[in-house]
C-alpha cells in the first residue's frame, strides 16, 4: 500500500515527474513491504514530512551493507522508517540504540517493526538526545564502538550531537546527517526564506560550515531527500 502522495518531492528535486520516475523505477521495486507499510501509516501523520525519504533510505541501506555495520546509533526516530530500514539491513545479531523524546510517534511504527521480526535489535531510549548521548559515553565500552550513526533531530543541536558522536563512532565509522540542505533554503537569500524555515536554515548553515572545517572526517553531501551529509571518521 503506497502513501496517498507518493510522488511529492520531499526537498530539493522539484520536478514531480522526475521524482516519480526515480521512485517508481528504482526505489519502490526494491523497498521491503514492511517499509512500504510504515511509509503509508506515516503519511497520515500531520508531521509526515519529518520521515526519512525513501530514496535517501536506499542510499543508507547501501552504506550499511558496504561497511558491514553491526552496531548502530540513531538520534531522532519519529515513526521509525530509517530505524526499521537499519534493523532490516544489519545482521541478525546487530544492535541499534535509538534515541527520541517522542515515544508516541515511535509507537505508530512499532507494530510494523514487531511484525517485521526485528524489534529485538532495537534499544529505544525515550529521552532528549544530549543527556542520552552523555549517558552512553559514561560507559567506556561504548566509546568508539558504533559502526554507524544516523542523525535526524533538532537542527540547533547538530553541532553538539556531532561532538559526542565522534567519540562514540569508531575510526572509519559512518555518520549520516539528514536535512543538511533544509528544503533548499541554505542557498536562498535570507529575505526569500519562509519564516518557518529561518531558524533551521541558520543552524544548518552553521553546522555545514563546522563539518567542512572538521579534520576528523571525510564528508560528502548528496541531494537525496532533504539533503544527506555522509561523514567518515578518520581518527
TrEMBL record:
Family matches, as InterPro entries: Cation-dep_OMT (IPR050362), SAM-dependent_MTases_sf (IPR029063), SAM_O-MeTrfase (IPR002935)
CDD domains, A to Z: AdoMet_MTases (cd02440)
Superkingdom of the organism of origin: Eukaryota
Keywords, alphabetical: Lignin biosynthesis, Methyltransferase, S-adenosyl-L-methionine, Transferase
Gene3D superfamilies: Vaccinia Virus protein VP39
Entry keyword Heme: no
Molecular functions (GO terms): O-methyltransferase activity; S-adenosylmethionine-dependent methyltransferase activity
BP terms from Gene Ontology: lignin biosynthetic process; methylation
Matches recorded under Pfam families: Methyltransf_3 (PF01596)
Coiled-coil regions listed: none
Family stated for the protein in its record: Belongs to the class I-like SAM-binding methyltransferase superfamily. Cation-dependent O-methyltransferase family.
Protein name (database record): S-adenosyl-L-methionine-dependent methyltransferases superfamily protein
Originating species: Artemisia annua (Sweet wormwood)
